[in-house]
Amino acid sequence: MSTKILMRGNEAVGEGALRAGCRFFFGYPITPQNELFEFMATRLPQCGGTFLQSESELAGIHMILGAAAGGVRCMTSSSGPGFTLMGEGLTALAAARLPAVVVCVSRAGPGLGRIASAQSDYRLSTRGGGHGDYQCIVLGPGSAQELYELTYLAFELADRYSTPVIVLSDAILGQMMEPVELDTLPVIDPPEKEWAVRGKGKNPRKVIKVAPHTDQELVEWNRHLKKKYELIREKEQRYEAQDIDGASLVVVAFGSTSRIAQDAVMQAREEGLAVGLFRPISLWPFPEKGMKELRQAGIERFLVVEANNGQMIEDVRLALCGSAEVIQYGVGGGHIFAPDEIYEQIKMAVR
Amino acid sequence: MAEWKCVFRLPRAMTDVPFPYCPGCSHGIIHRLVAEVMDELDITGKAIGITSAGCSVRNWRQFDCDMVMALHGRGPAVATGLKRARPEAIVFTYQGDGDLAAIGTGEIIHAASRCERITVIYVNNGVFGATGGQQAPTTLIEQKTTSYPKGRDPRFSGYPLKMAELLSMVSPDSYIARTSVHDVKHILATKKAIREAFSVQMEDLGFGLVEILSACPTNWKLDPLSSLERIKREVIPYYPLGTFSSPRKEAR
Amino acid sequence: MLEEILVAGFGGQGVMLLGQLLSYGAIYEGLEVTFFPSYGPEMRGGTANCTVVISDQRIGSPVRNRFTALLAMNQASLERFSPFVKPGGILAYNTTLIEALPRREDVRIIKIPATQIASDLGNPQTANMVAAGGLAAALGFISLEALFKGLYRVLPEHRHALISINQEAIKRGMECVSISE
């Protein structure tokens, strides 16, 4: 008998968090992430954890900062308008070098926008989300199983690099249900963090800082962060490539759009078009290495498909440094692609 | 040889780092009172302080306990997350009136309404000190600031916020008091209030907050003594001292 | 194989549960599946629909605009969605609540008197289960057994006392389509 459980994407995120030993959730309701919020509200108290509804996303992210300073694994989640408010806390977490996981189930903007699915928070996520020189690791899952596994990974990476990690989901991924196998990952009891504050006892005191004492110290901080981000860039690029051999065009898409593009690519291949698919999984760091490999394999044309007005295309262009032709097909505002629609774009783009 | 007896020393909960404050500023007195209370309650080993934005931003250097820095106004949210994660710790925030009553109004009201088991030291000197004397929510009517050089006109820029009164309305399980540090008698009363604000947390009775009227000679453009006089003559009449709520039955 | 199924009806007919049951049926047949519901304020207008994609290979898009099978539980859904059924596809509908015949001749029409059968069984609210059984019979690759197993997953534990009632409804739905086929 299959051990797979049919699970909503938003719930799969929650399962991944629980599996990773997350026992604290602070957040504010917003569609389309509410199922995750409600999952945590039900499940955390059952596992001896704490769920608290904050008065705003702003308060929520700072509650996360407090809990993270205390050394526990903690998470918050939101969508576009609320995610914007979290920028302040993200920069504070990055400055304080605190690990935390923030989930954005993105919806269509700008402004209040609508609850239809979109990928228009790509830029906000991959450029940090707040002020100052910092980055968040950003993971872009493409299935319920990946929402589960990458949320779990997010906690591991957050701890490994002592930095906030964003899981960038979207309304399609969050609302759809797919079979999830939970036993692919071990249950974790996270180790104690020696730097966490819990009262100094008889030891020297600890201070978790969001600002250094001197100008010189801040320069040093930034040097440290830069080095850390370089290390992450080196070690944590993740992607998936399919049907690359002999392709004359490669479609680049992440998250739910990659799923729709997958059908379009398959259709194109059935029609005899030499088309491949490249799916960035780590959105920051962007999988530049994978893109360069494609370039070295002789791919000269790339079609970037994203449910926004053109955001990831900037990273694709940066990765290719003008060495290949990059075409964009992006529709913002909550438009949901049909496979046929992407197929038509492929036909036009392929030579 | 004469025997020397120690009659006055640095509280154990305080580092020997010199204060960074202007002459006549009340922060130093209030820091010391908090540290003395921590000594007396023997909680320095369990205490975690949350700093805020403003003049007291660097007070993590002053208290010899674990400290976490919060951004402007978010202290009560950070304290909430920390206390929920580490309920055995004694968590306090130290916030000015710009931090608590302007940018952090939402966070303090909800922390109070949840009766979070935290202690808030709220220092009210009626101006934004660190940024150069702009109008705070607590600036008195007609008081001149760099935002409104002609003085505060309530019809234009609002009335001074009475946070202790306001918070006591939303936080039944709380100890909320307003005190002043303009003379010795009131300094001693302030210390007593700070002690109670920590005690209600330690006894798991509720939320504790002391609003402390304090002087800012630099931005008031007064000398230190005249500043203390101003608290007595102008500030206290608008901001009456007293206890506005208590979670103890006998006090109700 | 690739089946793109749309299940549509009005709120309260158990359309989501029906879609989830089919999904579990597919899982127990060793197939890949995605389920995508209508969500948010859209749901409050009284209509509900979900897309179930089943394949023996990794599934791409969970969202479809053309379908190999439509299961319409009420008149409005039939009218709205029948144009999107691919030629040669299945058009199944709840004959108890739908009087007008679908105007399509290039599809396989499957008639399921779901509400009637459920009412005869004394449990009108199990019409969705009858319909699930009927559609599974028409699809031909989801067994009665797989749906029965799925019931244990889609019904919360405090409803497990109702499993035998639902099993009966699924069985009757399956039989009604198998006989008429």
Brief rundown of the structure:
The complex is a heterotrimer of chains A (351), B (252) and C (181). With 351 residues, chain A is α/β, with parallel strands linked by helices.
How would you sum up this structure, described in words?
The complex is a heterotrimer of chains A (351), B (252) and C (181). With 351 residues, chain A is an alpha/beta fold. Chain A is built from 13 helices and 16 strands. Chain A folds into two domains: 5-235, Rossmann fold; 239-349, Rossmann fold (3-Layer(aba) Sandwich), CATH 3.40.50. Chain A is 42% helix and 21% strand. In chain A, strands 2, 3, 4, 5, 6, 7, 8 and 14 form an eight-stranded mixed sheet that branches. Chain A has a five-stranded mixed sheet with strand order 11-13-12-15-16, sandwiched between helices. Chain B is an alpha/beta fold and 252 residues long. Chain B has one domain: Rossmann fold (3-Layer(aba) Sandwich). Chain B contains nine helices and nine strands. The radius of gyration of chain B is 17 Å and the shape is globular. Chain B starts with 26 loop residues before the first helix and ends in a 7-residue tail after the last strand. Chain C has 181 residues and is an alpha/beta fold. Chain C has a single domain, classed as Pyruvate-ferredoxin oxidoreductase, PFOR, domain III (Pyruvate-ferredoxin Oxidoreductase, domain 3, 3-Layer(aba) Sandwich). Chain C has helices spanning 15-28, 75-81, 114-120, 127-139, 144-154, 163-180, and strands at 2-10, 32-37, 47-55, 67-72, 85-94, 108-112. In chain C, helix 4 (127-139) crosses helix 6 and helix 5 runs antiparallel to helix 6.
